[in-house]
Predict the 3D structure of the following.
Amino acid sequence: MSLQSLEICDFRNIRHASLTFSSGLNLVTGENAAGKTSLLEAIYHLGRVRSFRTHHVNQPIRDGQTAFRLVGRLLREEGRVVPIGIERQTAGLQVHLDGSVVRRLSDLAGNFPVQVLSGDTATILSGGPRYRRQTLDWALFHVEQAYRDVWQRYSRALRQRNAALRAGMPANQISTWDSELLPAAEQIHYFRQQYLENLIPHLQAEVEHLLPSVAIRLAYQAGWPADTTLAEKLERTLEKDRTLGSTQYGPHRADFKLTVKGQPLQSHCSRGQQKAAVVGFMLAQVKCQQDRSAPMGAFLLDDLGSELDVMHQSRVLESLRELDIQVFVSAIETGRSALPGWPRLRRFHVERGEIQEVV
């Protein structure tokens, strides 16, 4: 699956653009603040219906306007073109897919999987467990068909258990929610374990290519101590949960760490090495999707030159080329000599929100 074309209206500093993309590499160049990241952010919206730059949903609307509109055409593996449209007004959101109104954003899952690595390289390393769980869950939504339903069952039971805790319900009523929460928790834990076991060999291979001198390990924490079961832990900590009004243990507290010699990767690696490691992690996720024949989308790499020297830029681009997926890369400038072996390449230049294809 790839993004065949995109029309942008009043998004950030882009008044209007109508673009056709390569199914391989799309290189976006221009000076800082020209609008390169805005183009990648618009593409990200098609897959996630949100921004990777802000939590304020109306912020991408161009100054002085009341809405932005994005219209994309997705080319699926079977050759069918599917239109997708997103219009964000200050008063609400409208999403259309293949001619139909999308009522639930969860229904878009899998239609255009998109990953982004932006200039904030440390987020996956130091952005907190919640961000890493979201990264893990997003991947599982696309490779494990049953995961979304299990995750929704667990989230619903967790909300009900927390409400019962805050209301001071007796233990037998709280245990009613435990009977729904625990089976879903076990399934989530199983899916995550299996996924990470499959991910680790790909991660090690990617990091070995990008950072040959660094041995990175991935450590997974389930969300409760390894020497006990979740059921036992919930029973033992019931009174503490009552006091706090929330459940302290479970998959919603899970985390994973990237380490070097048993210590956090950040304490051993430079900013450039950290960015290369995160790229390796994301490429490994793509490999896992390919292993499961999951729908592929686009890989967005914003600000290629940030914190990566020329050698690591070349290695990253080489790894992306070998994946044979659609890639969007923004950079201030990249010479053709840095792009060997890309048979499907389109170049775009952005200046003050105006986007032109470079022939």
